[in-house]
Amino acid sequence: MDILPLAHHLNALAFLMLLLGSFISPFSDSESSDEPSNICNYERLSEVKRECNSFLSTASKLKLDIEKAYRMSYALSFRYGDWVQEAGTSPLMPFEDDMGKNFSDSESLLKLVSFSIMDVDFSHLHEDEVRVCGYLSIGITRNRTLSNHADDWSPWFWKEPGISELIIPFEGLYIETEGERLMCFLGTSVSPFSEGFSDLLELPIAYSSDFYPQSPLLQDDRVMLVLRYPQTFSLTSRVIHGEMRNSNQNSNPKYFDKVYISSQLGYYSNYQFVSEKLILEACNPYPCQDGLIDGGIIQDLQFCKFFQGLSAEMFDVVGSSGCDGTEEHCYNLGPFVLGNEVKRTNGIQDKFRIMMNDPHCIPGDKLSKLSSAKASAVFRVVSSQENLFIAEQRSGLSGMTLSAEGTWNFSSRLLCMVGCVGLAETGSDGCNSRICLYFPISLSITQRSIFVGTISSINNTDSHNLLSFRKVLRPPDVLNKYYDYSSSCLSYKYSKIESANILSKRNENFNLVTFMKKSFLKYPCVEDTNNITSLSQLSDELSFDTSGLPNPLPNAHPPKVYVTMEILSLGSLFGRHWSFRDFSHKEGSKILTNSDFTKRGQLLNISAHFTLSGESYVHISVLYLEGLYNPLLGKAFLIGCRDIPLSQGPMNITNPESRMDCLIEAKVEYSSKTTRWLINPTARISITSQRDVEDTLYFSPISIQTFLIPYSDNSKEFIFRQNFEESFRMLVLSASIACILCQLFFMERKVDAIPFISLTMLGVQASGYVLPLVTDGAILFKWKKFQYSDNLLDGGKPMWLQVFDCTLKFLSLTAFVLTLRLCQKVTKARLKLCTSLPINLRQIPSDKLVFLSSWTVHIVGFVAVHFIHLKKTADGIISTHHKLSEWVTDIDEYMGLVQDFFLLPQIISNVLWKTQVKPLRELYYIGLTLLRLLVRAYDSIRDPVLNPYLHKGDNNRSSVFFSKSEDIIIMTILVVLAVTVHIQQGNFNKSLVK
Question: What average pLDDT does this structure show over 347-368?
Answer without folding.
Answer: 76
